[in-house]
């Protein structure tokens, strides 16, 4: 049987999230044994302290949510997140440069982030709703080549989130052994299970508690 908690990055990325909100997020992650929490860089240190010794990892977003800043900024942000205790990085791809066809710049930027992460897993966010099929496939090739560990569907801040079709496409593009994270609009157990069935190995969601509490209503899978 699939244990959904193992797949979940319990996420809180709202600009107005308070320290108390982050503490509650981490308490929920501890209680349900989620894989990780995912927070903005300014909250990494607090999350690390809240989760120390729990086995729940801290993931930091990088270049979030647009991915359109200078590559050096993303590298510095990654280094700062590592110093603060982050154990995984979720970085937004430079979508405009990808659409320009500037694959060399995109690849160099991703390699810089991977290097700055110092062997910690890097998940690269596509914002798939803004890209054509060809652009998604090209992005996947660059992400795999960069040394990153995951391709991720969405920030959750765009006009569209994860879809089963996109997860299937990304899984096909990166092969069977690469990480695929579905994120954006995953708010119930049925949707979570559908994403895993399509090929997702991680789920980014702010509704992790509701998803795992609803799992008993669904037949065992896997």
Report, as a whole number of angstroms, the end-to-end distance. 5 Å
Report the total helices. Answer: 9
State the strand order across the main sheet: 1-2-3-4-5-6-7-8
Structural domain count: 1
pLDDT below 50 for ≥5 consecutive residues: which ranges?
Answer: none
Order of helices and strands: EHEHEHEHHEHEHEHEH
The biggest sheet, with number of strands, parallel, antiparallel or mixed sense and barrel status, is: 8 strands, parallel, barrel
Assign the structural class, choosing from mainly alpha, mainly beta, alpha/beta, alpha+beta, or little secondary structure: alpha/beta
Summarize, please.
By secondary structure, the chain is α/β, with parallel strands linked by helices. It has nine helices and eight strands. It has one domain (4-217): Alpha-Beta Barrel (TIM Barrel).
Report on the architecture of this protein.
The protein is of the alpha/beta class and 222 residues long. It contains 9 helices and 8 strands. The chain has an 8-stranded parallel β-barrel, surrounded by 7 helices. The model has no long low-confidence stretch (mean pLDDT 96).
Task: Give me the secondary-structure topology.
Elements: E1 8-12, H1 19-32, E2 36-39, H2 44-51, E3 57-62, H3 71-84, E4 88-92, H4 95-100, H5 103-116, E5 122-125, H6 133-146, E6 150-152, H7 164-174, E7 179-183, H8 189-198, E8 202-205, H9 208-213
Helix pairs in contact: 1-2, 3-5, 5-6, 6-7
